[in-house]
Design goal:
Helix content is 64%, strand content 0%. The protein is an all-alpha fold. The protein has two domains: 38 residues, no CATH class; 99 residues. The protein is rod-shaped, with a radius of gyration of 32 Å. It starts with a helix and ends in a 14-residue tail after the last helix. This is Flagellar biosynthesis protein FlgN.
Length: 169
């Protein structure tokens, strides 16, 4: 514990080529300073970069899990496979909760290009899923209306229907 408290945060230490010290020909060919590998052995990585990288990987994994569940449901609906709506609903809810919690905790990652692109792709898949679900529910509603009408017609003997009487009676 004490060793951890006294340990300094490792930083990326790599020599940078000094452009001013190069010859004129080399200066024309050199576009940017080049980072050279540390010839002493180990690569030292900044701890904050590692933490940010871990946060990004975790958030990206959560987005991709949610995207996978949404896409699985969409494919099942469009191919006519049997769909367990309770299962998909529970899985999407858990995954969405995980995503929302991670985003709240890591709002600073919202500006990262990779995160933004993944969220945009998730948004597109969610919109497609919503559209397919809406179409499915409209079809179910229409079939249910037809069934209800058929059952009412089959049970009715015509006594209470609004049929016009013959001869004014």
């Amino acid at each position: 514990m004490q060793a951890q408290e006294n340990a300094a945060t490792p930083m990326m230490e790599q020599p940078v080529v000094d452009i001013e010290a190069t010859t004129e020909a080399e200066a024309r060919d050199a576009l940017l300073p080049a980072l050279l590998p540390n010839p002493g052995g180990e690569v030292i990585v900044d701890a904050t970069d590692t933490a940010k990288s871990d946060e990004m990987r975790g958030l990206l994994a959560a987005i991709r899990r949610l995207e996978s569940i949404v896409e699985e449901e969409t494919v099942a609906l469009t191919t006519g496979k049997k769909v367990d709506f309770d299962d998909f609903s529970a899985r999407k809810s858990r995954s969405m909760l995980e995503f929302v919690r991670l985003m709240r905790a890591r709002m600073h990652l919202g500006a990262e290009i990779e995160i933004t692109e993944e969220i945009q792709r998730l948004r597109e898949r969610l919109e497609r899923n919503r559209s397919v679900l809406e179409m499915h529910y409209d079809a179910v509603r229409e079939v249910a209306t037809i069934i209800v009408k058929a059952v009412k017609d089959a049970e009715s003997d015509g006594t209470y229907t609004g049929r016009a009487t013959q001869g004014g009676k």
